[in-house]
Protein 1
Amino acid sequence: MSPGRVEWLPPEFAVVGDETFPARHVWCVGRNYAEHAREMGADPKARAPVFFSKPAAALINSDTVDYPASTDSLHHEVELVVFLGRGGRNLDPVECLERIYGYAVGVDLTRRDVQAKAKQAGHPWELSKGFDQSAPIGPIVPAGQWVPSEESLIELQVNGMVRQQAVLGDMIWSVGELIARLSCEVTLHPGDAVFTGTPAGVAALEIGDRVVARIAGLPSLAFTVRQPQAEG
Ligand code: MN
């Protein structure tokens, strides 16, 4: 390694079976479905997408998720997650779609009370979004085997009850448009994941809840929220 240069070593993130994906960075977008934007008190058409991050280590593919510290309001947000096989900057939407490695169902777990306090105080959202196990995802399907369509159903159930349900066509910014916008802000790299926003119906999870998240045509994501484990 040359002096002053930090080389990035990708973590081998287990996806499913023998497949792994070297996750580099998790990008997320706030309010990308009109109804959810309204439920959070925003005008969907008024503004450019708001991007934020989670650490790559927040990704988890597991049957359980530990209830995090410092919250009484752990919210679920079902989202289509896009994984980049190639990066770039100042890309157009078509170039972005060509650089997608694959797709998965994900849940952007959010400490809503922590986020509300941060917003009120004008503080960063960081710890409301980027905590341990805050980015559960299902298996990644290669882009050649599945593409998002306007009619694709996106849904999240808790203990068998539907909490969130929409179609991908309800997105304010399409997958290509979102990544293109992001690529004008930062250089994107292979291994970057993009959570593309959540439809209306976000609500709190309790310990013991069984979460099943689905997008038509992708393998579903299922996990149980469990008591935080004592430090080992
Ligand atoms: Mn989200």
Protein 2
Amino acid sequence: MPDGKTLFEKAARGIRTERTPVWVMRQAGRYLPEYRALRKTVDFLTATKTPEIAAQITLQPIDRFELDAAILFADIMTPLEGMGVPIRFAPGPIIESPIRSQKDVDGLRPLDPDEGVPFVLDALSIVRSELPKDRSLIAFAGAPFTLFCYLVQGGGSKDFMDARSFLRGDPEASDALLNLLGKSMIHYLRAQARAGADALMLFDSWVGLLDEKLYRARIQPVMKNIIQEVKAEIDRPIIYFANGGSALLEAASEIGADVIAVDWTRPLHEAVARLGSSTVLQGNLDPSALFASRDELGQEIDKVLESGMGAAAHIFNLGHGIHRTTDPDQLGFLVDRVHETSERLSSDREG
Ligand code: 1CP
């Protein structure tokens, strides 16, 4: 890395590389036997709040596979305790007192990362010091609408109807909540960059529940503000994952993120066609493809890589988190295949 940038960071900034960088969402987690073994000795919340343990889990997939980036072991809900919301995990997040009125919103405070999440910042600096220099460290935050969904609903849901009806039924209180979350995530992302993160990612896992008009009116301004305010202070590539957002792809690409992460429901070449060849894409293999035969899996990987050649640059990933019943050896196969095929495609392109 003579010029000081990893393969991952070059691609995130739109520079074509000699092969396609690769990492996978939820790579630090339950499909790994070493994660499950560790989790027998410590609960999820304690693991996220103990910097040495969070750092160890973050590095587990890096020790096993030739991945180009590590993503910090934490959760999108982790910073919310620092805003005054007690959370438990079973295994998804549960909020005993959901936020459903202006009064509830008034009871929250903006996040002060040094005070609310010192363990996250410590974990990042441990990982950065132990991670090889040619690998990047990704820190992340939940996007305000997705955090809003859990906060208002009180936990996971298929359609987050309580959250979506609050968004429509009490626009003042819900905008106040979205803005407070936006402001807090700006502080959170900046602090994580200062603590050692090389790149930042915003997870908008539930934004696909909104139609484009509502997204543009109520969510897009909050997202634009986050990117603008983070970028005004720190220079790190930002990835935006608008899950289930194939209807929102254009609107999502307008917020100013460096990389648009695409889910698996539409082929990657469609994203290239819709967003144009100057956009950097991340994604988007269907996580269930890891359960197919190696022959079929290999072909699916190659298809994604070939489509990615049409983008400004491409970071290979799944189109959503790796499933907990995945055989880790299938991920090993995936990483090798991405290396081989993308080296060949890149040299064909050069030649
Ligand atoms: O071990 C366990 O039992 C806990 C399971 C678990 C894990 C491993 C949860 C609870 N969170 C995590 C880690 C996590 N969560 C990471 C770590 C880094 C990595 O990717 O390797 C990340 C980035 C997240 C982000 C996250 N949490 C998202 C966004 C990404 C996505 O999947 O869409 C969401 C929606 C959550 C909420 C959440 N936390 C945990 C669960 C099981 C869920 C989903 C709950 C639901 O809606 O049903």
